[in-house]
Amino acid sequence: MYAIIRSGNRQYRAEVGSVLDVERLAEPVDRQILIDDVLLYRDDEGTHIGQPNVPGARVLATVLEQRRGRKVIVLKYRQRTSYRRKSGHRQYMTRLRIDEIQFAP
To answer: pLDDT for 61-97, tens place per residue?
Structure first.
């Protein structure tokens, strides 16, 4: 059983017990959150595809930590002009543990 959820304009495959790094959510650590933006739900009985969301499907997750992702290097270069600019960026992320996937048709 798994679900495809949307968080921060990105889609993630959520299974019970899996750990996901999503874009920063303004939630404290150790709080359980409810994600009801479920785009697809699949179990042994079949697949339910939402238009855009699956009615009756929700995912419960626990916030494990607030962290920053890996550094992304941005390099700008123009040839024959001695123009070089290097900068970096680290995105804020939230680590979630998927506790439960609920579906009530």
So the answer is: 999 999 999 999 999 999 999 999 999 999 999 999 9
Q: Which residue has the tokens 């889609």?
A: 11
The angle at the Cα of 93, spanning 92 to 96, to the nearest 5 degrees, equals 165
Q: Which residues contact 82 (CB under 8 A, 6 or more apart)?
A: none
pTM (two decimals): 0.84
Q: What secondary structure, in 3-state letters, does the chain show?
A: CEEEEEECCEEEEECCCCEEEEECCCCCCCCEEEECCEEEEEECCEEEECCCCCCCEEEEEEEEEEEEEEEEEEEEEECCCCEEEEEEEEEEEEEEEEEEEEECC
Enumerate residues 6+ apart whose C-beta is below 8 A from 55.
none
